Amino acid sequence: MKKVFVSGAFNVLHAGHIRFFEDAKALGGYLIVSVPSADLLWRLYGKKTLLEDDDKLELLRNLTMVNEVIPSTDEDVALSFRSAFIASGAQVLAVTTDDQYMEQKRAFCDEVGAEFVVMEKNVPPGMHQSTSSEMVDRIKAPTHVPLRVDFAGGWLDVPENAIPGEFIVNCAISPTVSLKEWLYRKGAGLGGSGGWSVLNGWDPVASELGLGVGWQDPAVIAETGACVWKSGRYPVLDFKNTGDFLRGLMAVYDTRIKHDTPGLACLKRNFNKIAQAGRAARMGVQMQDIKMLAVGVQLSYHLQLDEGMAELPEIGACLAHKYCGGGHGGYAVYLYETPEAREAALESCQDLYPVEPYCRTFGKDQPVEWQPKYLQRLRDRGVIE
């Protein structure tokens, strides 16, 4: 019987670890697992342990395929287990194909006369095996997030369209959404794919850029508030405020047409005029002036018409309106000068819904629900069951 040695942080034990231990034990019949202490984990790798040392050791000792658990103690990033391996009398060191210290470990085995085995990860067909980092990200993800309305500067967040010195202006909105409660029409143009990424703990900017569109949706959904962003390859916040100057003055109109932003990303656009609209909207947020913001919104709308989007209806005494996003459909944002003007518009149009600026309070991601009468309107209009 050979002694097989494996090491790692094993910060969050999951099915992938269990399969790794089983496959490693099959190499010799006796499995030794070595883990660094919480202090060593932090000193060497800058990682915070999720389990206390005693908890982790107890869990590992009680796995049926594990014969022995010993601590790693060496101040060596690649070979923190060196002394433990030599003291254990192990004959085999097993690692997976993604081990970042492969060459150092291979050289160590040559030095001490041990067998070095690189194993493929054993993942059943069709199954995605979460990593420990993915599991931690999912735990840290909020339970509720806002969606967003974009005011101006859209498309300047797509890396290849970026214009240094220009701006993208948007605002996070409530009611909020969760993985279990999504009370907006799908394909809405409100940044839903970015919101879904944030809720799942994925890298939201990478997810959106992977779709061939820009980063503004996940950026403002994660940041919250009324935001101005610098045009560029990645999101850099210029400034933000709570957006309270918009309270009672915004609504979204359901066009009932599903939008498709990725499918239209390659259309020709006048990026200089888009930048002009962004500058006007930026001034509106900076001054907290709804009328100035409306100038940027209306400039953006005329550019959308030039692109071929259908005209939006005039609903009440609105200051400005535009489609949310560039997908030729979905929801459109409407701005009103007073809460009374918005209320009159809401009463006149059954496809218009009130939204409010959302700015996260410290450490909180509280759900914000629809008012009962608008929840019923959503049901009546077939948006939800």
Structural summary, described in words:
This protein has 385 residues and is of the alpha/beta class. Helices cover 35% and strands 21% of the residues. It has 13 helices and 13 strands. It has helices spanning 15-25, 38-45, 53-61, 82-88, 102-112, 132-140, 192-200, 204-210, 216-223, 271-287, 290-307, 339-348, 372-380, and strands at 2-7, 29-36, 68-72, 92-96, 115-119, 145-152, 167-177, 226-230, 236-241, 250-254, 318-323, 331-336, 352-357. Strands 6, 7, 8, 9, 10, 11, 12 and 13 form an eight-stranded antiparallel sheet that branches. A five-stranded parallel sheet has the order 3-2-1-4-5, with helices on both faces. α7 (192-200) crosses α9 and α10 (271-287) runs antiparallel to α11. It is elongated. The termini are far apart. The mean pLDDT is 90.
Quick tags:
13 helices, 385 residues, 8-stranded antiparallel beta sheet
Principal-axis shape: elongated
The biggest beta sheet is recorded as:
8 strands, antiparallel
Number of strands: 13
Order of H and E elements: EHEHHEHEHEHEEHHHEEEHHEEHEH
Which percent range fits the helix content? Answer: 25-40%
Count helical runs.
13
Structural class: alpha/beta
Unreliably modeled segments: none
Q: Overall pLDDT, averaged?
A: 90
Straight-line N-to-C gap: 62 Å
What fraction of residues sit in β-strands?
Answer: 15-25%
Radius of gyration: 27 Å
Q: What multimeric state do the chains show?
A: single chain
